[in-house]
Amino acid sequence: MQKKILQIGIVGAGSFASFAAHAFLRVEGVKIVAVADVNETAAQHMGAELNAEVYVNFETFLNDINIDLVYIATPPFLHYLHSKQALLAGKHVICEKPAALHVSEAEELTVLATSLSLLYVVNLMQRYNPLYSIVKSTVNEKLLGNFLHGFFENYASDENLYPDHWFWDESKSGGIFIEHGVHFFDMFSGWLGEGKIVSALQLQRPYNGKKIVDRVQATVLYQGGTVNFYHGFDQPKILDRQEMRLQFERGEITLYEWVPVKMKLHGLLLNEQLQILSELLVNFKMVHHNKPFLQSQTAKARFNDVIFDDHITLEYEDVLGKQNRYQEMLMAMITDQWTWIKDQNHVRIVDHNNAVQSLKMAGEANRIAQNIQS
Fold it and tell me: Residues near 236 by Cβ (< 8 Å), separated by ≥ 6?
């Protein structure tokens, strides 16, 4: 009989692990049974919070027969080792991004997990956002025509990233592309297909005689167009903000926040396209920029006629905000992965291939940026 309970052990007792744990516990049947961290105070605090066993030794933690799945929320340089040891101990693994610091390590983990018939996946949870699915449907059905260009601009805060934080040490984080950029390389690849890095650069700030990379940029070529990715960690927290846009032949889609909770679609639509969007975009506010046309209108672009029935803007914002949306995405992620554990014929939204492919793109962007700098 299939187990009706999924018992999770958490490695890394930081604030995000606590946030994720509470999201997992909202899924019926999920239990947190163990917490491990070399920082005994942090481990004891989370263990008490979750009523879980506490370990400071990882090997002892892995010997806990009650653990079905290990959720890894340690710094990136430990991801490969912790994932490999957990798999060899017979545990399923969900790891925070990135999979590892090197593509070869991520590939090794996927082969190992497959050979042992165990789950191995990285928490690239952006694909579980309902707004992600709406964009994907718009692209796939060409509701705004062909894709032409896009961007992701990440003006992130460094307020809690003190100067000796592991985030700034590329030997521990892999750098901004690898530590953070994998989310968005994966996201846009889900919409547009496989991309190729065509340029990348990194910029530094001087600090106490050292140079810290705090801004990176890459251009990726997809079928039909390019996307510019910019990540800067240099803002006060109150100014932390993100925006991404996909431009098409007959309009554009803009999303806001790094976990998107707000979306705006603007374009020229035929009635049948507007009907499809109206079914997708429940609770969206619609603005008509013209009085209803008695007949189809024609505009010109790219040497072609653009025939449309309506010129509209559709807007949506989740009033409950980013933290609520993030919890919902984590719940959807753990449910999807647990379904695969129970039935390996289940096709997951995110699997081990996402971990490898996003890391390949991030690693290539890092390589090009470092070569330009040197």
Answer: 157, 159
CA 125, 198, 145: angle at the middle one, nearest 5? 65
Helix, strand, or coil (residue 74): coil
Cα(175)–Cα(367) distance, rounded to whole angstroms? 11
Task: Provide φ and ψ at 340, rounded to 5°.
Answer: -65, -40
Burial class of residue 297 in the structure, from the number of CB atoms within 10 Å of its CB (0-12 exposed, 13-18 middle, 19+ buried): middle
The torsion angle over the Cα atoms of residues 99, 73, 245 and 234, rounded to 10 degrees, is -110
Sign of CA dihedral 46, 48, 49, 50: positive
Contact residues for 68 (Cβ-Cβ < 8 A; gap 6+)? 3, 6, 7, 8, 91, 92, 341
**Region class of 326: left (phi > 0), else alpha (psi between -120 and 50), else beta:** alpha
User: Model confidence over 262-310: pLDDT tens digits?
Assistant: 999 999 999 999 889 888 887 888 888 877 666 789 999 999 999 999 9
Longest CA–CA separation in the chain, Å: 73
The owner of tokens 């903000």 is: 241
List 312's β-bridge partners, or say none: 267, 288
Residue 27 tokens read as 């899924």
Whether the predicted pLDDT of 68 surpasses 50: yes
Facing residues of 307 across strands? 298
Q: What pLDDT was estimated at residue 208?
A: 86
Radius of gyration of the chain (CA): 22
Q: How far is CA 231 from CA 97, 114, 221, in A?
A: 16, 34, 18
Tell me the residue type at 204. Answer: Q
DSSP line for 322-360? HHHHHHHHHHHHHHHHHHHHH-TTS--SS-HHHHHHHHH
As beta bridge partners, residue 227 has 150, 220
pLDDT tens digits for range 170-225: 999 999 999 999 999 999 999 999 999 999 999 999 888 888 999 999 999 999 89
Model confidence, pTM: 0.94
Q: What is the DSSP string of 191-212?
A: HH---EEEEEEEEEEEETTEEE
